[in-house]
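fwd from M.: "can u put these together and see what the complex looks like"

so here's what she sent:
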Amino acid sequence: MEIFRKVSDMQAFAKNAIREGKKIALVPTMGFLHEGHLSLIDRACKEADVVIVSIFVNPTQFGPTEDLDKYPRDFQRDKDLCEARGASAIFAPEPSEMYAPDRSIWVDEEKLSKKLCGKSRPIHFRGVCTVVSKLFNICLPDVAIFGQKDAQQALIIKRMVRDLNFPIEIIVSPLIREASGLAMSSRNKYLTAEQKEDALSLSRSLKTAEKMIAKDGLSACGAAVEAMRAEITTCNGEIDYIECLDSSTLEEPTDKTTELLIALAVKFGTTRLIDNILIGV
Amino acid sequence: MEIFRKVSDMQAFAKNAIREGKKIALVPTMGFLHEGHLSLIDRACKEADVVIVSIFVNPTQFGPTEDLDKYPRDFQRDKDLCEARGASAIFAPEPSEMYAPDRSIWVDEEKLSKKLCGKSRPIHFRGVCTVVSKLFNICLPDVAIFGQKDAQQALIIKRMVRDLNFPIEIIVSPLIREASGLAMSSRNKYLTAEQKEDALSLSRSLKTAEKMIAKDGLSACGAAVEAMRAEITTCNGEIDYIECLDSSTLEEPTDKTTELLIALAVKFGTTRLIDNILIGV
């Protein structure tokens, strides 16, 4: 497995693979890999000849009061995991390699990014779109794999690929949970044992909401969200949002809606967790 | 020569050329081609095996009061010219093929685009960056040729390629003038005979400024701009801007400046013309 720190080296590797007629898959990550990430690598290995995992804690998608500095990192462990799961290369640049001091170009999404996490993280998706555009141009993949855990991100990246005509197929791979139901996240590391127990209210309440909507359809959305709100608050969760939206537009569901996204962001102590579920209607 | 109207057909052609190991050059234009454009095609033919000319009057780079609707078009003539100059393909999509009704992604430059033309055309360079990103992803060139006529555009596109890591070399080809000195432009078609005569004051005054700066160096910038202003005003030009800046930063020249850009935008009647000159210092 190759490890690249420089944009030019990564791009040369990718161009060479293309010249050899190989299909490239990219798995963009911020490292500190868990089984969720590894399931994306597994999917990438099924899709392509060459699998590139990028490991980059992207400063431009963190707000000034967010956890950029304490975001967990363990490159040696990530490297071993990537190698064991069959990745061909890791791209792990320093921030200074990715961003020039006088950089002045942003890729911005102006509709979907205003909803859900965008309300409390106003610059987040601009940072994501910009860095993912860069990673696409550096790694030149035929296919890129994103996790359904970051449902809004996956939707925005698909929109970006459509609107900027990137010659790339986006695959969204299912959310992976611990046996307890807790959605896997690098940020779970921040939780105390007690907070981790409290955080089970997220997946539990999503299941409750799913049952209510399976029984009564769209009309149950309001009550389902209220039930979730009650359960999570009881478990000491500080709710940023819980919303039940059309999964393709992130607008209120209408009679044209065929799939719902129930998405939430909740803080336990200082740790902000997200989770979601898709429900066909 | 192939003509493509659909993004998917153009992208398939480009991917196929890449698979065959060919080098692709892109010449992005808004059509109504003149010798300035044709010199870009000539340069592209020297650089690559496959030369794609895009012809697209991009609505997102025109402001609401600008000349989108009356912008001159003559596809048959453009097609014949491209073929005669050795282009391999034309990409000429309709606006509806390029922009979905619910499009929501923009590529934006936030520093260089605030200067010069950006002051009176605030959305112009956002439209340019967005459409050029799209054309890059659709035509997949190794090299793209832009004209020095649009000096600010060329600088912003180079910045975009650097900041988003497009795997593309940008070549900026010299400004081409008519024998009279008038910079070639599709918009020259709008000028009456008298306005065309008046518009010669642009190139004439740039030459005057060049001589003043050749003689007295950077310290002559202010006087040179004033002399230009007087000459152009005398010839009925309504000045949008005349500026003498560092050609790489578009900031006021400093002792680190090695090249000046004198750039201007001037209206004759309702027709807005731009012109510029580079001066080593």
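replying to her w this: The longest strand of chain A covers residues 259-268.
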